[in-house]
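input
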Amino acid sequence: MDNTSTINVCRGTGAGECRFALFVDEGFAGRIEERINDSGWPEFLQQRFGDNINRHKMVSVSGAACPNGCSRPHIADIGLIRACVPVIDHESCIGCEECVRQCPDEAMEMIDGKVLITREKCLVCGLCTNVCPTEVISCSRSGWRFLVGGRLGRHPRLGIELPGVYTSDEVLDLISRCMKIWMDNYVDGKRFGWIMERVGHDKLLLE
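output
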């Protein structure tokens, strides 16, 4: 990695190290770095600060393979959480309720002989697709949750999540938008979240 970005993708994605982890392409971190470099961010910081680019001036991107968020996506400038939106084939479901018992977020329940998902509780972790013994639960959409503006420091806050689940290509496009907005509205000493609070998160939504 260069000295203008810190990119951290969850270690649990390799060799089955984490039972909660969804698949992440091992080259994805490199694609993120390439997109940030293509945005002109390295040249932008170089022009403003020369060789005096410390960690506090870098953009931070953290990707997690599940909602446990071990790579701390919630406090990064840009946070990514792998996602699988579950859908149930009710005609083939045998009603064993294994998914109900295993759901860590209590987002599934049996009602009138049918397993229903409470979408407001579901963190789209995809665990139910793995524990179903008859494989009747699948991903209707897989990709990433996208968070912006997390930070620590004197006034910490968690990142704001954009609505929806985004493909890897859509994530890269969103990152390009993030970098443009940051550079266009840059204020020395302020993190990306501070900028977005003033610009508005709707500026990031894909058309």
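quick obs: The chain has a mean pLDDT of 92.
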